[in-house]
Design a protein that fits this description.
Elements (H helix, E strand, L loop, with lengths): L1 H20 L4 E7 L2 E7 L7 E10 L4 E7 L10 H15 L3 E5 L3 H9 L3 E4 L2 E4 L7
Parallel strand pairs: 4-5
Antiparallel strand pairs: 1-2, 2-3, 3-4, 5-7, 6-7
Length: about 130
């Protein structure tokens, strides 16, 4: 179940990311039990590697944490972050997992709580059915 769950999450978000990732110099998907990461390289420079998405999965607690969500360059301002969270939530919920977003900027934290995410502490929110992600 473990590898299958991570693969299902990746398959849910890949269609949203691929159109943008194909425009980057290089990209990769790293999927392992309990971990999903998407990295892209924006140009020929090694310093332009950017982690777009990082997810940690605790199968024992049935929790998924989005620990990094970054929309660099051409991905900014398109609502991509909210759409990614929505797809992750739909897939995770189908398996009985709770979804949390952590390590976010104060501005993103405020936007998610205004959209109905439940505040867990100053750095983490829980996504739920009431969270407006459209």
């Amino acid at each position: 179940m473990t590898d299958k769950f991570e693969a299902e999450i990746l398959n849910a978000i890949k269609p949203l990311l691929v159109p943008y990732l194909e425009q980057s110099k290089n990209h990769k998907f790293d999927v392992r039990p309990g971990f999903i990461e998407v990295i892209c390289q924006q140009d020929d420079s090694d310093v332009t590697d950017a982690t777009i998405l990082q997810i940690s999965v605790d199968h024992d607690q049935k929790q998924l944490q989005i620990t990094r969500l970054n929309t660099p360059g051409i991905m900014k301002g398109l609502g991509l972050g909210k759409r990614l969270i929505k797809e992750i939530y739909i897939s995770a919920k189908a398996h009985g997992y709770e979804v949390f977003v952590t390590n976010m900027t104060p501005g993103f934290y405020e936007r998610l709580t205004r959209r109905g995410a439940r505040s867990c502490n100053d750095e983490m929110v829980q996504i739920n059915d009431a969270t407006v992600l459209a």
